[in-house]
Amino acid sequence: MSESQIGLEKLGRRIRRDLEMLQYPPADWVIPRQTNDGQPVLDVAVIGGGMCGLVATFALLRAGISNIRTFDSNEEGREGPWPKYARMETLRSPKTLAGPALGLPSLTFQAWYEAQWGRDAWAELGRIPTQTWMDYLIWYREVLSLKIENRTSVEQIEVADHGFNIRIKYGVIEEEIPVRKIILATGREGMAEPRIPSPLQDSFGPQCQHSSEDINFDDLHGKEVAVIGISASAIDNAATALEAGASMVHILARAPAVPRVNKMKSTVYSGFTNGFPRLSLAERMDLLSYVFKYRVAPPQNSVQRVWKHKNVKLHLDAELTEVKKEKRKLLLLTRHHRIKVDHVILGTGFKINVNAPRVLKPFYDEIKTFRDTKSLADNKTFGEFLDFPDLGSDFELQEKVLGKSPYLKNLHEFTFAATVSHGNVSGDIPAISDGADRLVKGITASIFQEDFPKHLSNLYSYEEPELRGDEIPENKRWWPEL
Fold first, then answer.
1. pLDDT confidence bin for 137, thresholds 50/70/90
2. Same fold, 3-190+352-452 and 196-260+297-348
3. I need a labelling partner for 309 at 20 to 30 A (CA). Which of 64, 197, 246, 477 fits?
4. What angle do CA 312, 316, 318 make, to 5 degrees?
5. Across-strand partners of 209?
6. What is the mean pLDDT of the chain?
């Protein structure tokens, strides 16, 4: 066994001891439910086994909710964006963030890293390599014995008396599962669609791909490539194309200048995390709109990764006005540019759309967004933020028409789509533990309230004695009577 393996073994024992002292796992307190025909009902189904799904699963177990199942459509070790379209060399977040540790120091990335390579190696580490972060998440799942059902997709959600029936698919095997509550932990793209500039709508396909797609960069060797956008994702994709041997990469940005500041880095503190949901809707919208308009700077190391190459050209104030097909190439037109390329990569991010998740199709017309708030409906300042779902305090979807779709309260959206309602606590690393804690505390309280009559009945019938009745020899009066 190598030194790093020995270190991880020791850390694993420490974590198990820490959890034992925290009385983990606690007894499951949830009153079992059955369908009308006697089938057991799952308390919570978690859809998604990436970082958000993992931390939500662990938080549920810590809260004494163990009748759960977590599903992910990817192969084991391929969950989330990290092994797929996260093409940065290192994470954008500082290495010191606690991430999904849920308050356990021994569960942090730092503890995992130091256990294998020591404190000196930790001190020398700059930013976290992307694959190293994925390795940490794989270990996180293993050390906590979290059961994720991989290569399993949720095909359908339908309303039932007990909550929902979900249909899952594993290969050719299908199963219908009665479930009470559902957590949607499906990632940044979970309730979103690729943002495609209108001039490129007709060209979107093999020659024009979004950065979240499985792009074959080897095919771009010797070709001219255009990357649309100057976000972190756009810059990372430009770098990947250059490293694959593209003959020229054009970066087209609508902005008149390159942004230098990431305003959201100033919000990583407990006051903001806990206070944001309590702000008025106008205050939340104003804040997010300001950050969006100010634009977010791409990371320095990503920019340097691109501009160490000579065959890259930046085009500012270059909003696309028209795209023409010329033989096998695409001609991109802006007010100031005519650029002919072989391939286009959209680093334009995602646009929130509550109608994007296929499994939510039965509820498309029922989910409330901020655009359904009359006072905001025509507010052009808030732009795309109006399309975000208007979530409740437990991340639950809310009804567009009050009283028409009460079952939506049992669908919990734990993705980036929760940003306007809850802040940045359900997608990125900095406050992911705070988000999971808030989510599961809400679900815990909701389940208890729904079953309160039964809990009250259990309280009434509870009679485990503290005293046997012989502790006070002269006393004959006891309650309950002996």
1. very high
2. yes
3. 197
4. 105
5. 345
6. 95
